[in-house]
Amino acid sequence: MTVLDRIKSFSDRLTETDRKIIGTLMDNRAEAAFLSGPQLAERAQVHEATATRLAQKLGYKGYPELRAQLQRELVEGQDAAARVRRSVSKVEHGGFLADLIATEMTALENLDRCISQDEIDRVADAIVAARKVFVFAQGHAQSVASFFLRRLDRYGMTAVSLGGRGRDIAERVVSMGPQDIVVALAFRQQPAGYAPLVERAAQVGARTVLVSDLIGPTMEPVADVTLAAPRGRSGSEFQTPTVPMTIMNAILLTIAGRHEATMIGKLEELSELFRSFD
Question: Is the predicted pLDDT of residue 103 greater than 80, yes or no?
Answer without folding.
Answer: no
